[in-house]
Amino acid sequence: MKRRSMGISLAGLLAASVASGACLAAASSPALDDLTSYSLVRLDGGNAIPVTLDEAANTLKDYDVIVLGEFHDHPANHLAEMALFRALYGKAPRLALTLEMFERDVQPALDDYLAGKIGEEVLKSRGRAWGNYSEAYRPLVEYAKARKLPVIAANAPASVVRCVGMEGPGFLATMPADKRNWAAAELHLHEGAYKDKFMRFLEEDGSHGPEDPTKTESEKKAQAERGFASQVTRDDTMAESIHLYLQKNPGAKVVHVTGNFHAESHLGTVERLKLRAPNLRIAVVTPIAAADPERPAVEAKDSSSGNFAVLLRATPARYASKAEEDTAMEKMRAMFRGRPIARPCVLPAN
Questions:
Q1: At a CB cut-off of 8 Å and minimum separation 6, what does 140 contact?
Q2: Does any domain span residue 346?
Q3: Cys-Cys with 215: which of 135, 191, 193, 219 at CB 3.0–4.6 Å?
Q4: 332 or 235, greater pLDDT
Q5: Number of C-beta neighbours around residue 205 at 10 A
Q6: CA distance 212 to 103
Q7: CA separation for the pair 246, 255 (Å, rounded)
Q8: Is residue 343 part of a domain?
């Protein structure tokens, strides 16, 4: 999930990861000394088994799709991703990289960069690269570029996601024909664990936007449903992007990098990819902020969050008190208060 559009906060996800709970039986992982430290663990039933990078890659190479969930702003998470991508290429060189961080409509810019036709600054501009591109995603893209590996802009454009959030999933049917393929042909909006998780997040997290006290319960429910549709627009589009690539390239493998919310517990994008291609073997590598960095362990509640886990040291708390957080949330609400809502929603020309 893209941090600057949907508002699912890294702090909230990290806080959930470090909540107290029973730990799985596991051999000890090395201490996480700083924010560049990480430890790989295989999740196997009721066990969390520390593994080396080579051991993890040896297992993951047998999957068709390896989904690397991430905390977008965690430095060690990005180091682990790069190490896994490099190790997987060494064992399965028919590899493609698909990224949440680039959107379908900028694929031509990404292709031009990979072909050496434009420089990185132009890629950042035309490709609407994320603010942390240089430190977080440049290593992956450069590694792929040097080895002529495909890099796929997998996500739906933020403009489309916003419009679905405003107008509902019916907006997709109103898109111009030349832009309709910016988003998935089909959205999966069914009830289930992922929708429950998303709705819980909306209830618990204050950073996604202001609560309008004038709205009826029915209006609030409709807004939440539109929010879920906008989230699923990303999930289904990323799933479809991976599926289309594999259909055109039988025998290839894909490493997909995305926010952990989209992949955790094989939900979100992973669930929707499985609906499109039930026979695909999909592995999920999920980040977990260890409750005790000196003795990092996987808690029982995280035992089914992925096939492997990357144990990380938690990033600093965003706020030292509830008062600090309330002040920050009120500033955010003030930004939205009185702002007119543009309808009908119109996509940019390019």
A1: 81, 82, 85, 97, 99, 257
A2: no
A3: 219
A4: 235
A5: 17
A6: 31
A7: 12
A8: no
Residue 348 covered by a domain: no
Q: What pLDDT score does 350 carry? A: 66
Total-model pTM: 0.90
Give the model's pLDDT for residue 213: 64
Q: What's the structural domain count of the chain? A: 1
- Give residues with Cβ within 8 angstroms of 218, minimum separation 6: none
| Both tokens assigned to 159 | 């403009």
Which residue range forms the structural domain that includes residue 220? 3-336
From the list 71, 58, 57, 61, the residue with the least C-alpha distance to 100 is 71
Residues 6+ apart with CB under 8 A from 144: 97, 114, 150, 151
Q: Is the distance from CB of 97 to CB of 255 less than 8 angstroms?
A: yes
Sheet holding 65-70, edge to edge: 25-26, 47-50, 38-44, 308-313, 282-290, 65-70, 253-259, 95-103, 151-155
On whether residue 345 sits in a domain, the answer given is: no
Report residue 151: phi and psi, to 5°.
Answer: -125, 120
Cα gap 216→202, rounded to integer Å: 16
| Separation of alpha carbons 118 and 309, rounded Å | 37
Average pLDDT of span 237-250: 99
Question: What integer pLDDT is reported at residue 245 of this predicted model?
Answer: 99
Query: Residue 337 has what pLDDT?
Result: 66
What single DSSP character describes residue 21?
A: -
Place of tokens 């990289």: 97
- Parallel/antiparallel/unpaired status of strands 47-50 and 25-26: parallel
SS3 1: coil
Whichever domain contains 203, its CATH number is 3.40.50.11550
**24 has pLDDT over 70:** no
